[in-house]
Amino acid sequence: MAASVFCCLRCCRDGGAGHIPLKEMPAVQLDTQHMGIWGVGVATQKVNLNQIPLGRDVHSLVMRNDGALYHNNEEKNRLPANSLPQEGDVVGITYDHVELNVYLNGKNMHCPASGIRGTVYPVVYVDDSAILDCQFSEFYHTPPPGFEKILFEQQIF
């Protein structure tokens, strides 16, 4: 089973990996173009990007395509059964360095998850012909107060 894990403007079956350290409280939105196996969340640099689904270890905290939020192979929370993402829905996530929150078509799903520690990076994975359009800025729905596009960490020499 071929899989890809990466962050870019469009995630599809074949791709590479990228790392963007999170500096502020970011928001990410996904437009589910073609359903398959996918997940979105945050991960440390130690995550194994070749082993999906993510959320199996302490290095990733993700929402999977079935609406379950996983960290360390434990289901931390779940979207309501009548609110599972469907093709064409916009899934948003926010992360405040403690909790990952999920939004569906701009509505807070009130199912936070936490547990990951350290410097984290946004992570999106797809498999089984899934296609997701990822927005890290210029969102379809306005992020909640205090959240904004992902800012790149910069070092001043």
UniProtKB/TrEMBL annotation:
Limits of the SPRY domain: 23-137
Coiled-coil features, chain-numbered ranges: none
Taxonomy, superkingdom: Eukaryota
The protein's name: SPRY domain containing 7
Taxonomic placement: Eukaryota, Metazoa, Chordata, Craniata, Vertebrata
